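S1.2 Input.
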Amino acid sequence: MLKIAKSGLAASLLVITLMMPLSTSTQAQSPQLADALIVNAHVYTVNAKQPWAEAVAIRGGNIAAVGSTQELEKFRGPSTKVIDVGGHLVLPGFTDAHIHFMEGSQSLVRVHLDEAKSIAEVQKLVKEFADKHPDIPWILGRGWSYPIFGEAALPDKKFLDEVVPDRPVYLTAFDGHSWWANSKALQLAGITAKTPDPPNGFIVRNPATGEPTGARIPTPFQRMAVLLGWIR
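S1.3 Output.
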């Protein structure tokens, strides 16, 4: 009886011993539950190997996994917050010291003048853009800098008129605080020598004739902004 008992005990210990690694392995393979799950989404991951996903698992303030809603179901626990976004777009967080998101986004499809080192280079870029986009009613761009205009430090409509006389051109300085328009843009906005300076800014004028030069310093040109649909 004692031998049988000892034999049975030994067999039980052997079974337990054999099962322990299996149990430990199973636990190691089980993912830690997520604090939150974003599901049924159109997730842009910014990962070239997996640019799009359907779900995101979040744990401890970090992204634990991305994949399909079905794949990430294993991260769901009783206290997991599940956010069903119904197929909408989900993007990574944007962190920046200073950005005007809409204006910055729109500038991507406009004339880029940041690298222009002379008036001639600006003219070349504006003309090339206008020629490539004959159906765009307004030629818009950003990035010109003050030093390219020499001592004047401000642009003149005549330089734009030379390359695009038939469509309005409206270009923002690199700092976003000055603007440059051609004659067509001034005409559509109704800005003439008789137009008074608007509040908190002024229209740069030819000292001999009083005609607007096409340069604008801070707030004005509300009429131009209305034409562009920027303000109402």
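S1.4 Remarks. The helical segments are 2-29, 101-107, 119-132, 157-161, 183-189, 222-228.
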